[in-house]
Design goal:
The complex is a heteropentamer of chains A (293), B (461), C (747), D (201) and E (176). Chain C contains 23 helices and 28 strands. Chain C has 747 residues and is α/β, with parallel strands linked by helices. In chain C, helix 9 (269-282) crosses helix 12. The two termini of chain C are 52 Å apart. Chain D is an all-alpha fold and 201 residues long. Chain D contains 9 helices and 2 strands, in the order ααααααααββα. Chain D has helices at residues 2-24, 47-51, 63-66, 81-88, 98-109, 129-139, 144-152, 169-176, 196-199, and strands at residues 180-181, 189-190. In chain D, strands 1-2 form a two-stranded antiparallel ribbon. In chain D, helix 4 crosses helix 5 (98-109). Chain D starts with a helix and ends with a helix. Chain E is an alpha+beta fold. Chain E has 6 helices and 4 strands; from the N terminus they run βααβαααβαβ. The chains are: A alpha+beta (293), B mainly alpha (461), C alpha/beta (747), D mainly alpha (201), E alpha+beta (176).
Chain lengths: 293, 461, 747, 201, 176
Amino acid sequence: MSVSNLLENWSKFRHTHPVDDKGYPDWEAYPSDIKWAMAIDLDACTGCNACSVACYAENNLPVVGKEKYSHGQAMHWMRIERYWDESAGVGEFGADKGARFLPMMCQQCEAAPCETVCPVGATNHTEDGLNSQIYNRCIGSRYCSANCPYKVRYFNWYNYPEQEKVWPEPLNQQLNPDLTVRTKGVMEKCTFCKQRTYTARNNAKTEGRQVQDSDVQTACQEACPVGAITFGNLHNPESQVAKQWQSQQVDLTKEVQEKDEKEGNRLRGYRILEELRPYPSVMYLERVRESAV
Amino acid sequence: MGKDIREDIAWAQINKDVLKSLESPRKLYWVILLVAIAMVGVAVGCEIYQYNVGLGVGNFDNPNVWGLYIATFIFWIGMSHSGTLLSAILHLMHADWRKPIYRFAEAMTTFSLMTAGLFVMVHLGRLWQVYYALPYPSERWVWPNFQSPLLWDAMAIFTYLSSSVLFLYIGSIPDLAICRDNIHQGWRKKLYTLLALGWEGTDRQWRNFRVTYLTIACFLIPLAVSVHSIVASDFAMSQQPGWHITSFPPYFVAGALYSGCAAIITLFIILRYVFRFEEYMTLPILKKTVRLTFAIAMVWTYLNCVEFAATWYSHDVAAKAVLIEKATGRFAPFFWGMIFCGSVLPFVMMVKKWQTNIPVMFAVSLLLNLGMWLERWMIVAPTFSHGYYPWTWDEHMWPSMVQWGIVFGSFGWFTLLFMVFCKIVPSVSMYEVKEMVYHRSLALKKEEQAVKEELAVKGAN
Amino acid sequence: MTENDFNRRDFLKVLGWGGAAVALSGCGNTSIQDGQETVTSYVTLPSFVVPSISNYFNSTCAQCDAGCNIMGRVREGRVLKAEGNPNSPINRGRMCGLGQSGVQAHYNPDRVREPLLRTGDKGETITWDKALGLINEKLNGTKGAEIAFITGGMSGHVQALLGNYMDALGSKNHFSYEAISPAVLRAANKKAYGMSMPRYRIDKAKVVVSFGADFLGAWVSPVHFSQQYAQFRKGTRPEGRGVLVQIEPKMTLTGANADRWIAVRPGTEGVLALGLINALGKAGMSIPADVAAVSNEYTAERTSKETDVSAEQIEKLAALLKERTPSLVLAGSAAEGYAHGSQNAAAIALLNRVLGNVGKTVEASASVPFPQIAPTVGNRSSLIALNDGLAAGKYKVVFSYGVNPVFSAPASMKFKDNFAKADFKVAFAHYMDETALAADLILPLDSAMEDWATVVPEYMAAPEEAGSNTYAQMSFRQPMMEKVFPDTRGVGDILLALLKQRKADEYKPFDDFYSYLRSAVLKNKVALGGKAGDDDEVFWNETLSKGIVPLKGIAGSVSAKASAAGLKLPVAADADPSYPLRLIPAVSASIRDGRNANEPWLQESPDPLTTIVWDSWVEINPKTAAKLGIVEGDIVEIASRSGSIKTQAYLFPGIHPDAVSVPVGYGHEAMGRYARGVGANVFGMLDAVYDKETGELALNETSVKISKTGQRVIIVKEEGPVGGSQAGKPKIAVQVSADKVDLSKEV
Amino acid sequence: MKCFLRSLTLLVGLFFYASSHAADALPTLTTPDDVGPVIEQPIEFPHFRHAGDAKDGGMQINCMYCHTYARRSMVAGIPPIQKCIGCHQSIESVRDKPRIQKLFEYWDAKKAIPWKKVHDLPDFVRFNHERHIQRFYFQQDRPYQEVCGYCHGNVKAMTVAQRQKPITMGWCASCHQKDHLVSANSSKTGHGPNDCFTCHK
Amino acid sequence: MSKRYLLALYNNFDEAEAVVRELRNADIKGFSAADDLVVKSPIEHPEVEEFLGDKPVKVQWFTLGGALTGGLLAFSLIAGSQASFYSQMKGGKPIVPIPPDLVLTYEMFILGGVYITVLGFLFCAGLPARRSPLYSAKVSEDQIGILVKADDGSVAILKDIFTKHKALEIQEEAGR
């Protein structure tokens, strides 16, 4: 803490962040040349759960068992939600147009409600646009979870590795050493596979180039049998995810998309609860249903 | 209406009566103490279990992350506001009937804050790392997040607690001196000698005492308001439906004063009996307290209505849904229980006959306290189980016995601290009762004089 | 570099994971520690192994029979995760949740670790020598005809070795059994198209009408079909966004993704298919005379009455099929599980002929040029044959490998009792499952991540550029790490050891299955894509590292001459009032037939439709439930003529009111900590009704009644109290009509 | 009174001391107290002999000759025994030394040597050797002994390696917050990342 | 000239007031009413200040100083620590945000005020103190004490004044 630090960061007042009143994203002002983002095509998603299991495998998620699941203590960072048409009337579900599936995980909000409230600063916004969770810093006040509109933060209610014996020998050999196994009392959530983006950035840096789409896939994206998930650097106009956001005219820093205000909207990109202004980094594409049959 | 206090009590008698409370309370005192210890035992057991196994044993789940702990935390914080109300606000307003009862109210402030602080600890997932939340220069070079309302909370509570302790202590120095002068044996003598700081009641001491006491009282009032409005901002600063309400800070403060007053009535009745304070904690004083409580109850009711009306009138669909869910869903019995206890029951206090009826008031005050606890629960829980995201709504979460045990035990903990305090420090402020008696007798004399003069004039005529 | 002649096994051993640090809870010590842990160190290390950097080994998934090509992520000598092999034409780098869980089968704490011998009610651990000697002893003096071998679907060199062994024993009793298999479909396809597993081209179709084929969930090769489906749904493809219509009594995952899900009365799928042909004729499509002769009877009114599908719906569907070609009609498990299942499948196949899809979206596939490694597919009729033989006391020695018939055979077959009649039962077991418990000798198997094998998939997917129907492939399965339990053995090794007992001379050159496989592959180097002059070692390593061996397959051809002759669908009988409901055993994408039930990830990943975890359930239509007074969470008893189970009721809109559905694969009484006691086993209560043509057990032909037991539970499920309701909520999961969006310009 | 004043002064003093410490305390890179314990290794490897300066009888072998993974992996790694044997099988002169005999015992038994970790970071910390070596060794062209020595101290003078630096978070940060040259022939500077998520996993 | 202490106890404030007024007017050697006269009472009696003459109270200056120091210190600590090397972006908010800092500044303002006021009180009231040689427990009960300090020679005069006003008891420092 020196005076120069103070002054320097004081002047960062609102400049380091892409969320601003003026027209954004202002990538010039963005602190890093990477902004991780995702696009999920709900029309392609079949609800098969492959992403969720891949997440268990990649991120050392504990299997809590029936009793704890019944208490709502499941630890799936990526959950698949199923919705019905309510065509038959309120509370009555019609199945004749199928169901809708929605993979839900941390939306990595640019203005995340969880970040400001952590008493110890265990959850912060990284320069590459992730909502970080520093497990060791967490003291378990759960304020972040209370404040998350999506309820995608998961708390370690028990000491899963040691006391609950979630990974009995030799199942523990499967654990991914690239990230920790969280113990009781800390909050955790989807990190967009930080360990993978880290490696990709590291390798690109060593080779002196920018991170490309081909460098990194999240575990869910890699597994998805229908390729519904796109992940990449929104900052890079060449990336698939940037193209998708662009084509759907979804703007990272707007809570009401301009296209939505226009009549006759013919695009299907949207973000969940964006009217709350957390500026989520995950764009969903509406499910499409043929009406001719 | 009777007198707040007899004007002809001899000062020496006051000393005698109050000091007696330090020596030989009624048997009930020991019963209460034992029960309180047992309750604390339950809570300690639950906490040890929870600490070792993990918070999951409390039946928390993903949306319902806070359960009863934070609700009870707010309850205790609220309770603490009574002391400030009686000792600071009424002091500034020169309401001298507060004098026999403000000491224990202040003690209540201190101990309920200490109880509230425990809930902050108890609800933490990693209690053993709590020092991460302290702002001190460490080898990690990191600081807590000052943007978090939780930290403001911690700071406000710390300030409030330490200020209250100081206020309580400063205010009882003259009484501690009396104890020092009257108790001549054992550790108590040493304790009182130490605590009395050599107080002799000199004019210099009294002069500075008066200013200091007034200054701290002045500080305490905005502090108390800020504490509960900061607790309110834990919720109001968030975006959750049912919490994100502008009227929360005043609403919380009103609720705090309300529950504090209700608790004062309860403790008033208990202390009056246990320590034989019938001469000092008189029924007229009870009546005044009851009337004050009724007034605050009406403020609270009004603010409650404002909150509902604002939600009702607004276009905030989610907040409206939470309100409807509160009133009709799983929480309906508790919600209506809160309305009954908080807004309907106080009308009992309007009946003059009952204002001084000890059994009735005892029952009413306990129910008011229950209502205020329910209020806090109804603020915290419904928003969790009926937030923005419909997929995660939760109908089945119910606090486990561990949570209930700790909440239950907290009442024991508070009672224990309070009762031990009352046994060590005079719970009626002797010097101030003397002042009260003195001033009242002067006033009486003046009155008599006036009457006499009038009579004399009449007689002369 | 110092020379070290390690073979492959030794090499894996040297990489040894034993001392490698396991990821531990990260919040224990918060400061640096000196000298507490041991560094992961090695005696020798090949240059491609760098600590903290993962290596990927190509292999083949063994979790189901689709044969997806996978890559195992290996770090510090441990396999950590399975990922899809991007070069695979089957799964193209993707994987399903079931496949991901393969690592949990590998590291499963409940695996059998040593050979076990049962004496009376007790078991004892014995050595491999003793175990193999015992088998030899029992086989001596047993006639070939008295020996039976029951396996699941098999292919590749292990199958060739098994064939050799059976020959050596002089036995022809190899039964290939699958509890859930499209056996009726294969037979119907054979008749209709001339090949049992043609290539389906969902990606080329404009309309897919699926009669209960859950191709996104559990049917044939789900990951492959999901890939095709992704193409099919793309608005940017030349054919435009495809329309999926699913016709089935119980909604499957595919049904949930359909544009229109049509609840058909159970068993009347064939009727609906013929009704559709009739409606197509009405709409002006020319119907071949022989087909028309059959379909003319199925007027819209009759079809609608029998199938419970509205006439307009049939008309609309016919109009769509006529307008948008090519289309594709699939017959799946929901249509074939009846006594007239073959007839249903045949009627559905007629639709493809009428619509002219054969050759366009139903393409010929190729088969591998080596018949001995071509897949032997499992079915349910073989279990019936084995059971009959066991009941008659024909078999003295029975081997079982890769199947769990004691669990999955209907109780009415009394398989467990009949199995006990055999003198000596040997189970090659991964877990102590129900069959292993009933066996006399249990031989512990290597996991698929420790074992050598070759795999030839039954459904032969081909890369896009391969085009013609000459592409076939063989995939390698190779060990990715040292054995987790040192005393398990690969099935190839065991078979080889057993063969040596019979033909010592012939198999002398092979130390183990690895050397057998290597020499067998090198012998056919040219056919496997190598050149005659290639160095053996180089060829072998390259082939292994690819994991996939493309072969010039024997071309097949599809015929568009599906015949309507002999097609006769029964008139639906009125339901028996004492058993008014039809039971549909559902196959979930994760648990399948229950062989993977001991993998916790699968138990904890919610069923996509009901979101229930860790238990079985019965799906009841809300209308039916209202009639019976059942609410969610009621424990109900479902009773058939052959048995009954108790489970929790779940009210589910995606099921026909005449049907109830219970997932299979639950209700294990053994197998391991994650599977045992979870849910109820619906296999047991199935009636012994068989498809009239193929003799397959008709899975959907069981009638049941439901009664409340009075108990009620809170169902453990992922969905919240409002379930799928979003009424009055902000935009969460929304749906838009296809004519409201322009999909062609999407990226 | 005086006593009271004294304690008051002391309190205020303490507070200011603490604050000033917070304000600009840069922990010194090494204090004698930070030296780690002596760790008993299965073989007492003489670093000074291999890596030490010639004047001290060392052979000046580059650290990354043995710890070869450091430049391309998160971990520096311990060389496989094969590497030791590669040289030592042809160095007859020291063949009888007990350490070397021990080494050959392990080699013959095909058993990995259970070296103890000297710099064992907590499991939630991600330290990347590659990044640091790339930055300071390859881009800035600093001598390798200096670069490795930033964290590992003067290993070339040690027998068995011993921790010389505190390796605490504040210590890491003290270096990360300093501006370093981006490369050897550039005047541009930059500091290490200060993002928690970079080092914590 | 050595000094001696005298303590007289009175029943009520009226008598004590009369004594003080007389003492203030009397010219006694070695005794000044401003410095050598201390009234001890069991209750706070603002009138005492009146008849003792104006003696300023300075506690409020401590309060002001404490409050300002607390507030300033808090603000600089908070803003400074947020701006430190580990400055982390949070939720789209500036790194050094003024509004939340003000809340904490407010709290610390009060905290500083209260603490320093208490210190000021102790300082101004001369606490903690050793008990003066002449003290009667009666003072903390119901009697008013007047403690004076005067030259040896004036003791008699003082005693006279005390007794004149019906002193209940006069304590004298043991002879020296």
